[in-house]
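Check the record.
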Amino acid sequence: MESRPGTESSASPPSPNKKMKKEKFEQLVETAITKIPRHFKRRLENLVFLVEDRPRREIFGRTGAPPLSAILGTYHGIPYQHRGPFYGNYPPDVIVIYQKPIEAICANDEEIEAKIKEVVIHEIGHYFGLSEKELQDIENR
């Protein structure tokens, strides 16, 4: 099993005036998932998306992220490329999108929506086995 951090930022804690209702945030995550290109979406199997307020302390240790960084999302599971013919009867892989850190680095709802899309795609990259460095190289093109 692998646990990989998503996009990170060295942002400060969220400001109360940027808080979005959890239901709206979850809806934006669902919308981002529906907009995943079809040729990738067809390969998403045994995968669950969750929204949590912020990462738990052990996530920082497990992912190796610096303690003051803002983890925006995580992927935990068996990457697609490592699944063989005997893959089965495994609990689902999990992608978690963290609301508070995303709110902390975004100035408005439009930025939150764009950041959610970015993090969802980033974490799906980990699902397909891409490393953090490979994803950063792709994102910086």
In short: Helices lie at 22-34, 38-41, 57-63, 99-105, 109-127, 132-139. The CA atoms of residues 18 and 44 lie 32 Å apart. The two ends are 29 Å apart (CA to CA).
